[in-house]
Amino acid sequence: MMLPDNVKVYLYTGITDMRKSINTLAILVQETMDMEPSSGDLFLFRSRCSKKMKALYYEHSSYTLWYRRLESGKFIFPRNASGSIELKKEHFKWLLASNKYTHSAGENTSNHCDFY
């Protein structure tokens, strides 16, 4: 995924129905996150089971929607009561390139109260 260096990445911390398309995700960004979906920022959404993630991005008068599904394991995202958090670019790259922020059943994992 090629993105400009100045792109901010925001994660919607609530549960998102993965059947939502570009229009309904843009409305979610605007109404729930109180942000402008056409700002050029990248918005991430996770599924209830934490195995799926969608990314919404606006560039040059068009939206792009990416979808990522893990075959095993789950994404682990930090909790935040405010509804959204800004992710560091490195965190986002690790989500796409490796399993650093996933775990599979049977693995020994620490119990962190600040993570899902």
- Compute the average pLDDT: 82
> SSE order, as H and E?
EHEEEEEHE
**Shape summary:** globular
Taken as a percent bin, the fraction of beta residues is 25-35%
Structure classification: alpha+beta
* Number of helical segments with 4 or more residues: 2
Helix share, percent = 10-25%
Q: In which order are the strands of the major sheet placed?
A: 4-3-2-1-6
- Give the count of structural domains: 1
- Tell me the distance between the termini: 25 Å
Main beta sheet, described?
A: 5 strands, mixed
Contiguous runs where pLDDT drops below 50 for at least 5 residues? none
* CA-atom Rg in angstroms: 14 Å
> What assembly state would you assign to the polypeptide chains in this entry?
single chain
Total count of strands: 7
Q: How is this structure best described in words?
A:
It contains 2 helices and 7 strands. The protein is of the alpha+beta class. It has one domain (9-103). Strands 4-3-2-1-6 form a 5-stranded mixed β-sheet. Strands 5-7 form a two-stranded antiparallel sheet. Helix 1 (22-31) links the parallel strand 1 and strand 2. The longest helix has 10 residues, at 22-31. The protein starts with 8 loop residues before the first strand and ends in a 13-residue tail after the last strand. The mean pLDDT is 82.
